[in-house]
Structures are given as C-alpha cells and as structure tokens.
Amino acid sequence: MASRMMALALRHQPAASKTSLIVRAAHSGSVNPHLAEKLEKLGNRDVVGFGWNGEPTYYDRPDFPMPAIRFKENTPDVLALRAKEKEDWKKLSIQEKKALYRASFCQTFAEMKYPTGEWKMHLGNTLIVFALAIYISLWMAAYIYDPDPISFDEEHQKAQLKRMLTLEVNPIHGLSANWDYENKRWKK
Amino acid sequence: MLRAAAGQLSQVIRGSFGVSRLAAIGAVRNSSHSTETDAEFDARYEAYFNRNEIDGWEARKAMNDLLGMDLVPEPKIVIAGLKACRRLNDYALAIRWLEGIKDSCGPHVDTIWPYMVQEIRPTLTELGIETPEELGYNQPELALKSVYEL
User: Fold this and answer.
1) Model confidence over B8-60: pLDDT tens digits?
2) Dihedral, CA atoms, A8, A11, A13, A16, nearest 10 degrees?
3) ipTM reported for the complex, 2 dp
4) Rounded to whole angstroms, how far apart are CA atoms A33 and A87?
5) Do A82 and B127 touch (CB under 8 A)?
6) Which residues cross the membrane (chain A) (predicted)?
7) For a FRET experiment, which of A115, A172, A184, B59 has its CA 20 to 30 Å from that of A24?
8) CB distance B139 to A102 below 8 Å
9) C-alpha distances in angstroms, A9 versus A3, A112, A176?
C-alpha cells in the first residue's frame, strides 16, 4: 500500500523533483542491491556510456553495439596505449589498434554473428526424444495395453456394416444413401 | 431520466480517468507522427556528432540509437561520427561504429558497403582509421571459450 501511495505521489510530482527523489533515495543508502553487485564487479573499468538499459554491464549485441563499460580493466599497458591513442592514429601500428579494440570490446561483429553450430545439438536431442517416444509406445503396446477388442476383426466389422445398412443409417447423404437396396449392391 | 443517468455516468467516467490523462494520451499519439524529413534527420545527427563538446556517453548513445534504426546512416553522418571518435580519442569506438554500419546494411551489404567505404575513404585516410576488413575483422579472429568450460 505504501509503495502504491508513493507511486501515486510520484506521478503528480513535476519531473525535476521526481529525479531529485530518486537521487535522494540513492544517497540514503537504499541502492538497488542488484546494481550494487554490478558496480562491485566493475573493477576499475571505465563506464563509458548508457549501454542498452543503463546498467554497467558488458555484452556483445549487434543491436546495441556500444556497451556501457569497456571490456578490459585499465591495466598499465592498456593505459599506455590510451595515451598513445591521443596522438595521431597514423602512428599506431595495426597490432596496437587491434589491442585498443580488444580493450574496449570482447568480440568483433564477425565473431558475435558467427554461427555456433548449436542447432545440431538441439536437432539431435529432439530426434533422440522422438525415438524414445516411439520405443515407449511400442513397449506399451506389447506389455501394458489389453489386446484389441474382438469387434476389431474383419468378420465383426462386416456384421456391423450390414446392421448399419439394415437400420438405414444416414439415408440422405451418408452410408445408406450409397447402398442400392433393390439390387443389394453399392450404387455406381 | 435516462439522459440524466447518462450524464451522471459520463461525469463519473471523466472523474475516474482524469481529463488530463486523456489529454496526455492525445499528445503522445500525436508526437508519434514525426514531421521530420529525411534531410532534417540527417542534418540533426550530423550536427549532433559535429558538436565540439560531445562526450563519449553522447556519442555512444547516438550510435546505438542510429544502429538500432531500420536504416543505414548517410555517409556524412558516418563521417561526423568518425570525427567525433577522433576528438574523443577512441579508436576502438570508430572501428565499432564502422562495423555497426556494415552490419546495418543487412542483405544489401555487397552494394551499400563498397559505396560507403568509397564515400568515407578520404576521412579514413585523413584520420588514420582502417576499415574492419583492413584489420581482418570481416572474418572471426578469436574464438570465445564456452562459459561452461571456464
């Protein structure tokens, strides 16, 4: 109830005071524990952007290519490269440029979009389940179910058909409509 | 009698929904019909990247936004983005930006991407930026170990 009252109160606040309320909530020590855990795991990586939901996490996604944090921590060699990056980029070697890329990002687009081949495992597992289902149904038929009722044999089925014709079942469009009662045969 | 009851009812409904909220819905609906032309859109993003005081947060946000849209940005926006990366001293961001542009070409990458490289080539030479192909990033370079085997 209290949270509902809070939400109602917030809705009627102008935008500026809403923000300050959230900031105050953060300062009063009630930081979302989920976020606190993320901040703890951050190490000394730079937080460089918004990412996709504002959380300081790294993930390679083609639809949001720029994550909120850099992939690697600021180790001395990365920092040395960063200092060199401030000068003319033509002075950087290809290896240094690649190292800079890998310091900011884990995978290139070609790597993140490369097929994993995982579909083969899923197809294989599905077929294994199909095969098991077939074997189980065969085993059930052999050991669990009763034998078919006696009325399933051909003699009983013929007797049933004869009785249906005698009763004139479905005489307009159905079974008996196709039976020629005078000549005792199926209509042509 | 019926009319009186209906009038009462409409008062109740209006009271419970709140006139202001209905008005707000109208405003949101109207705003979704953007009247911005393509030229204005291009100019807006070009001007955004060309701002001198742009920071890394803003550049990344605009790039993520642009690469999430159903379009391939005009070469002049790409160039402005590359120059923003240069001012921010972030070479990795420039390469990621180019990779994102190439990815957003989708199935037409064979026609759009060569045109894009041709258009942005002077800027690439000027700033010393390689295309992803020149870094060998058009093919996978490193494999990632499965997280279940770490």
Assistant:
1) 665 555 555 544 444 444 444 555 667 889 999 999 999 999 999 999 999 99
2) 140
3) 0.75
4) 41
5) no
6) 123-145
7) B59
8) no
9) 10, 45, 76
